[in-house]
């Protein structure tokens, strides 16, 4: 009953589960639910704001509301829209400061998901500023 | 540490875990906790509102607060109280519109759980209205 | 004890109250609180993402978390950063769809605040698409 | 900037503010926002579940999400749909137990609003069970 | 319909409104609601944890859930239980870091309420560390 | 993508995942994120309030915000700081009453985690007060 049942490839497992259950839901003759799904899709289409900005807005909204599946979805969409890792972390930082330390476990999973998407993994290199030892989160 | 450790029968696993941990909690001599559990049970007894309505209220409250275990519990209770799949989806639609797209991943798991309860699986048949292609949620 | 005690000029009243209480808080020798306030300021400085995008992220985060004072603050910041009314409404629409109808009362107050900021009030003109009569929200 | 600026008749003030700001919002050419408002209206139309049940669902969802304006709106809608005071309090009790003591201040304002709607004020009469003295909430 | 209608003495207004509406609620023959109120009172009685610790727990819970009336109530209770201003701010700092910047407007009102309670107003004196200029919150 | 992938020793798995992902996050040159992590650590250092009280505050805040990983972390920290099982349950009871029945599934997992930490498992012994049969939660 979790979002990503495939332990070997969590990204593929997450996508497959989402697709399968969305189909189950949309097969149901409930017009309000269907219209909501259509409206949700329409929301992120480029308009006065471009796709990238809208996906970043969806990402931060998901982060502060602490919904792992929504975060994973928008991380993938942002990645596809060309958001860089540095930009992604700036968006994470807004979500972290607005939403507080309660966001940290979701951010850990977001970074894990981002790393698995591949291509964005940036060699950490020399760490510019030694962070204080910390244990929390 | 998840609510349903039994991968083969998530419904049975969910129920067993809930029962076992409730027993652990109620074995503890903390009167406030025990009274809260008793009060929680009393809340859903038929009164001016019947059982079915009260369970639907519990379901929608759980949906907008996005608690998967609470949603599963109330889906099972509603199912047992005779709530039809169509009524269940109307309750879902209220939770979805009030709570927003952030509710969608929980609704996916709720429909998954409902399908596993058996008996309510309704053949999708010819889909009455072709929904827009969508990818989101 | 509300954020905007000045009935004649809510924007000025809101700003004065915020400034006065922030001073009270920062006069207190609590280093964690002070550092948090400094970090909050740093969060919105332009970096990989520009100021406008960051303020929009703060606005949508505030909207889905339904904090009127935070929304008012970011509406003012967005306005100052040159966000147009059309862009503002697209950000509102993301917050509305992610957060649900529970966001509507906050959006009403956000639009009210935006109107009072002046300069952005756009003549409604001929309404392009007649919305269904509705009563809700 | 509060929902009900008219101190003499809070119900009328609340309704006037809501109507005026909804008009402002719908005058804006943002299709996602308009469609969301239309969908919100559609959600509460009688279907497999009747109007009264749907309004009770909206009320409890609003209560646990702690949105005063949404609660007031659904209290008024429930009242109009013929929900009795006793049924209303049973719905409140579900919201209170699911959402916790944090719901109490909103319940106080909900009862206040309900009392002002008139007609439902029920003489308390002899109190059937003397509650423990309490100070909290 | 706000918690503190008395503009001249918000603390007294807050207390009067709370007391009056609690009486209205408890006059209603709903046993679940009454038992919840009694349980709420019982929760803060000294036990393995003393009164002061329990009230601080109630304060931080209210702060991160962002309920102004609950915060005001627990600030008053903590104050009466002998919590010093310095301890109160340390509790605020935990709520702020866990809950994020979204807590700031509630913290402003909490400090305002605390100042009005009197007796705890501590002369700021020489500020030990000059905080960065900041505008946010 | 869950917090505790090691099924045989969930506590060790939880700690390893947390440590590994925190390292990934802190390797990133984002100063706001790093400062937030440092501030989070500083928050729980003994000051006017002692370590035990601060960890209890963090526990209850995590409980009412319903973050399993945060709850597990603070349960472990409280346990290490010498919080007894009886005190832990009193803190749970505050979180339960403030946050409502929606907290119950998180409390089940918290008790499960606490039991696995070892050492605090207290023989239930003769149950002092027979709780009502209940099924809910």
Automatic annotation (TrEMBL), chains A, B, C, D, E, F:
Question: What is one Pfam family matched by this protein?
Answer: CMD
User: The Carboxymuconolactone decarboxylase-like domain covers which part of the protein?
Assistant: 32-111
InterPro entries on file: AhpD-like, AhpD_core, CMD-like
Q: What is this protein called?
A: Carboxymuconolactone decarboxylase family protein
Q: Which organism is it from?
A: Luteimonas endophytica
Species lineage: Bacteria, Pseudomonadati, Pseudomonadota, Gammaproteobacteria, Lysobacterales
């Amino acid at each position: 009953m979790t979002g990503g049942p495939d332990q070997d490839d969590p990204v593929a497992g997450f996508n497959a589960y989402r697709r399968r259950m969305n189909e189950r839901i949309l097969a149901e003759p409930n017009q309000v639910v269907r219209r909501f799904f259509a409206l949700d899709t329409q929301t992120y289409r480029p308009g006065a704001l471009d796709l990238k900005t809208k996906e970043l807005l969806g990402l931060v909204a998901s982060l502060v509301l602490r919904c792992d599946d929504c975060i994973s979805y928008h991380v993938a969409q942002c990645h596809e829209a060309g958001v860089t890792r540095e930009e992604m972390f700036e968006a994470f930082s807004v979500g972290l400061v607005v939403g507080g330390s309660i966001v940290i476990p979701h951010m850990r999973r977001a970074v894990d998901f981002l790393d698995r998407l591949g291509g964005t993994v940036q060699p950490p290199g020399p760490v510019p500023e030694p962070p204080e030892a910390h244990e929390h989160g």
